């Protein structure tokens, strides 16, 4: 038995072919047989439900706590509000469609795909209207995994630790595989005129959300998508059609996409002037702050997922960057005195969440857990203090500062800030 | 306007900033304004449902036809039966959890994670019993995307075209991202003795499904998984714990995994003797036919998803191989007289589904659509005729023959076989 094995003490030693004890200390030989092993369990005495009992399946009855949650005091109405992804309950890099965070400005529009249209017009040679069926027949269909983060994710934390749990501090992000068309294919088909430099993109719900997007970005990697994780977009994600603006703030990923106008300058709409700009300490506002900078968060341990016990534990978290690929994630257990690289596992794709792990042994001491992401540009995720020095505390958007979780001796875990 | 554009004729030309006609011919200028564009739509006049109306989200009301389906006459009871993935409605490579095909032998066991145990015993130094919490604390957690195909997928087609639609002919396959532990980590922890060469793996439902697995495979890439596509396994996929045996037949991916015994030879259980063996024409049976050979299917056009119209169309399909990575997929529209390589798009991972596309222009002639997969070993997916020459027609399992869809002049699409 190696020292690694001795240190682990996971699982309990059982009798040969017979029993082990739920009472026994970890790694110790059992004195009493474990009825969970030796007895025929209740679920093995009966036939369960048959196939297609649920033609569209649902999670287990034991997972009812794994849901999106909103914060009632955060917004005036639920039609213009947000619900958060339960990051602390998830693993890997795919967010299940039923748990992707929501952000609406006029509730969830329910649009029949037969009635939906996408118009492309303005400074183009051939203004066009597309039905959903026509988009599905258009050449160049493609699949990409991208994160989508609301610019206001972690926005409540600018003035100090507020919300107790990564679902609330960081849950305005999700990551799915999209299917659709490169926007470039549609724009080339319509023929953008040489003086066309900007796009106005508009949603079909009652809020008629509009944003300006530079043509360069549209031609580089934007997409119009009708599927996520293999199936049709969910209504709350813009069914039947949404825009993808990879790496850029979620507000620009127009849902229920109905209109793209080409112009020669930005439109300066509400959502890029009074909203989604960053008011600095001196009264000036940063505008067109589109890119989501490198960020990370430890999802476990975290306030909603404290350590299960002393001894071996697995720290886990997510990192992402709107500037490309995550190169490294460091973690610390002592508030930044000692950092070590986390183990990144699973697909490492540009503009996608990546999953990281770090095993540690917990003897019951207080922990100050942090993570910091480094992306391919060399950008290092800053502390919240560093961010505030540059941006002040008027901001709502683009808080990508390092998050700290305090694990107390009794295991209780809290959102804290350290200077 | 390039020749590619002229050939396309997709979308309809609209007025500048005003209107386009749903009536106008494709690519022609509109005469009447399109009310779908010019008028404020019903869904833009009202506020939709607010956030967290559905804490766990559901598909759109317009997607109710996208469900798993069973075939009533196929099995004697629904507790020992199968429901099929609606492949013709999906895109990309991720299968949503709610649509992953089901195969049960005693219905869906509903097992509480607090009560579940995994025992590892037999020829090991340290027999152990693990709780779910202990597995989550074990070092080495990892994420992998794998296809899972039932050995009986396409089994009804051995004796000729039977089932009309790829959901039924090929829908016993799905592809998700799993989270769990390499089985090697657990086996190393328990210390397999030098005479340990085989595993018996056992499920916890009323069928107590058991299979023998060679130790080499277990050590190479098998996993015990508790999450799929980011969230907990679904009950019908073995919640809270299942075995993954990447590239090998689905029957071995034991659900509700409760016991792993190490022995020095295979156990010759029912599921590897009377079932999941292939009876040849001369009366001998092929046994331990674990690996799922390279296979592919066109999911659109297909009987449940015929061509929408003449003119531009997108052919789409899936390919996979239990021997590694898909290297190429060829498609034909004329029953194999002319083949051309399809365009593979999205992640190309070993032992995972890959998505392929081929654009084509349909003038209304009869089509005989086929696809054939080639994997990294150079293996070429055979015709059904070639398979039968070697295996006869007694088989149920391991039919990876080339599938043919006939598209008639009126667009109706059927499952056919050509010699």
Q: What's the structural blueprint in terms of helices and strands?
A:
2 copies of one chain form a homodimer.
Chain A: H1 3-8, E1 12-13, H2 35-38, E2 82-83, E3 102-103, E4 117-122, E5 128-131, H3 132-136, E6 142-149, H4 166-170, E7 173-182, H5 183-190, E8 198-203, E9 210-214, H6 215-220, E10 223-228, E11 231-232, E12 242-244, E13 257-263, E14 278-279, E15 285-286, E16 295-300, E17 311-320, E18 326-332, E19 340-341, E20 343-345, E21 354-362, E22 367-375, H7 384-391, E23 404-407, E24 413-416
Parallel strand pairs in A: 4-13
Antiparallel strand pairs in A: 2-3, 4-5, 6-7, 7-10, 8-9, 8-13, 10-11, 10-12, 14-15, 16-17, 17-21, 18-19, 18-22, 20-21, 22-23, 23-24
General description of the model:
- The structure is a homodimer of 419-residue chains.
- Chain A folds into three domains: 1-50, no CATH class; 97-286, Alpha-Beta Complex (Sulfite Oxidase, Chain A, domain 2), CATH 3.90.420; 295-416, Immunoglobulin-like (Sandwich).
- Mean pLDDT of chain A is 91; it is low at 1-9 and 14-31.
- In chain A, strand 14 and strand 15 (285-286) form a beta hairpin.
- The relative contact order of chain A is 0.13.
- In chain A, the strands form six sheets. In chain A, strands 5-4-13-8-9 form a five-stranded mixed sheet. In chain A, strands 6, 7, 10, 11 and 12 form a five-stranded antiparallel sheet that branches.
- With 419 residues, chain A is mostly beta strands.
- The first copy, chain A, has helices at 3-8, 35-38, 132-136, 166-170, 183-190, 215-220, 384-391; strands at residues 12-13, 82-83, 102-103, 117-122, 128-131, 142-149, 173-182, 198-203, 210-214, 223-228, 231-232, 242-244, 257-263, 278-279, 285-286, 295-300, 311-320, 326-332, 340-341, 343-345, 354-362, 367-375, 404-407, 413-416.
- Chain A is 10% helix and 29% strand.
- Strand 1 of chain A pairs antiparallel with strand 5 of chain B.
């Amino acid at each position: 038995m190696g020292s690694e094995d001795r240190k682990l003490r996971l699982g309990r030693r059982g009798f040969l072919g017979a029993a082990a004890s739920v009472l026994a200390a970890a790694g110790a030989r059992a004195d009493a047989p474990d009825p969970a092993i030796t007895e025929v369990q209740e679920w093995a005495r009966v036939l369960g439900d048959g196939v297609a009992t649920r033609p569209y399946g649902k999670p287990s009855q034991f997972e009812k706590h794994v849901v999106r949650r909103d914060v009632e005091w955060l917004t005036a109405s639920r039609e213009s509000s947000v619900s958060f992804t339960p990051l602390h309950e998830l693993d890997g890099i795919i967010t299940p469609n039923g748990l992707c965070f929501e952000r609406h400005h006029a509730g969830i529009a329910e649009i029949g795909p037969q009635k939906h249209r996408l118009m492309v017009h303005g400074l183009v040679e051939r203004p066009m209207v597309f039905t959903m069926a026509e988009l599905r027949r258009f050449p160049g269909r493609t699949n990409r995994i991208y994160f989508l983060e609301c610019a206001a994710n972690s926005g409540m934390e600018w003035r100090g630790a507020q919300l107790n749990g990564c679902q609330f501090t960081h849950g305005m992000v999700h990551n799915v595989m999209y299917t659709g068309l490169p926007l470039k294919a549609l724009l080339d088909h319509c023929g953008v005129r040489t003086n066309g430099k900007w796009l106005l993109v508009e949603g079909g719900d009652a809020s008629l959300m509009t944003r300006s997007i530079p043509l360069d970005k549209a031609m580089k990697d934007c997409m119009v998508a009708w599927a996520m994780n293999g199936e049709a977009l969910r209504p709350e994600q813009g069914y039947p059609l949404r825009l993808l603006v990879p790496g850029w703030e979620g507000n620009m990923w127009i849902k229920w996409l109905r209109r793209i106008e080409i112009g020669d300058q930005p439109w300066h709409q509400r959502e890029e002037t009074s909203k989604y700009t960053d008011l600095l300490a001196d009264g000036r506002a940063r505008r067109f702050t589109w890119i989501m900078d490198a960020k990370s968060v430890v999802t476990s341990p975290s306030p909603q997922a404290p350590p299960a016990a002393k001894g071996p534990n697995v720290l886990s978290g997510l990192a992402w960057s709107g500037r490309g690929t995550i190169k490294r994630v460091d973690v610390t257990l002592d508030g930044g005195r000692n950092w070590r690289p986390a183990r990144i596992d699973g697909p490492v794709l540009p503009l996608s969440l990546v999953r990281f792990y770090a095993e540690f042994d917990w003897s019951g001491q207080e922990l100050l857990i942090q993570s910091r992401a480094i992306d391919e540009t060399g950008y290092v995720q800053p502390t919240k203090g560093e961010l505030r020095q540059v941006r002040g505390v008027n901001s709502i958007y683009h808080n990508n500062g390092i998050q700290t979780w305090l694990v107390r001796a009794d295991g209780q875990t809290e959102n804290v800030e350290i200077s």
